[in-house]
Amino acid sequence: MPELPEMENYRGLLVGRIVGRTITAVEIGREKSINVSPEQFCREVEGQAVSRVDRRAKHLLFHLTNRKVLVLHLMLGGMMVYGRMEDKPDRSIQVRLSFGEEHLFFIGLRLGYLHLHDETELASLFAKLGPEPFDPQLTPDRMAERLRHKNSTLKNSLVDQSVLAGIGNCYSDEICFQARLLPARRTSSLAEREIETLYASMKEVLSEAARYGGYMEMPLFKEDALTGGFDERCRVYDREGEPCERCGNPIARQEVSSKKSFCCLQCQQ
Description:
The protein is an alpha+beta fold. It has helices spanning about 5-20, 40-45, 120-125, 140-150, 155-160, 170-180, 190-210, and strands at about 25-30, 50-55, 60-65, 70-75, 80-85, 95-100, 100-105, 115-120, 250-255, 260-265. The protein has 2 domains: about 5-125, MutM-like, N-terminal (N-terminal domain of MutM-like DNA repair proteins); about 140-265, Helicase, Ruva Protein, domain 3 (Orthogonal Bundle), CATH 1.10.8. The strands form 3 sheets. It has a 4-stranded antiparallel sheet, with helices on one face.
């Protein structure tokens, strides 16, 4: 499932391609992927320009000039493709937004969605989400408070969107590895210095991952050579049996809080 770096990568790639451009046509291939009738969706989206593209947690927000917002969550299996009709993948399209001769195709939105909202609804829509990892108000002390509140495993706390927004299975493991902490550690057991290391590791890992296009190899357009570039840079995620880059011991796969998790049992504590 795309996480913060993947969606931030898509946001950056889309800004230069669709911001300021008018949506000339809309096609709905699956009504369950939207939250209003196809007639209302088309009526309120067609003819509007995209004023900006934001990200909140694992969502992309397409702000339109009529103060409506398209909220995208790709969930498991969802993807986007941007290009001309000849670039359309040989798959069913759940939603298509056209910008003249170019189109943004939304594919695989079986669990994911593209919902239409008023700007005034966003605060309540995201009210249960925790702070962003790069929120200036998220200090190491505040992060410690949020992690220790539920006294869960570190893995479970990092992927809990009400604790921190945007981190999922991949980057929780990568962050723990960078911080030399086991994903199975209880948050109540973390010392102050470990929290500070975790905080710095979170920012370092997420920044690097976004810079290299995330770990999921789902290119946005035909010439997209950036998306998925972090996959080969993952240190532990999906690296079961491979040698740890720090100590050489094999990376282990475990079940932590009913989630698959990868770590080095030698150099993570």
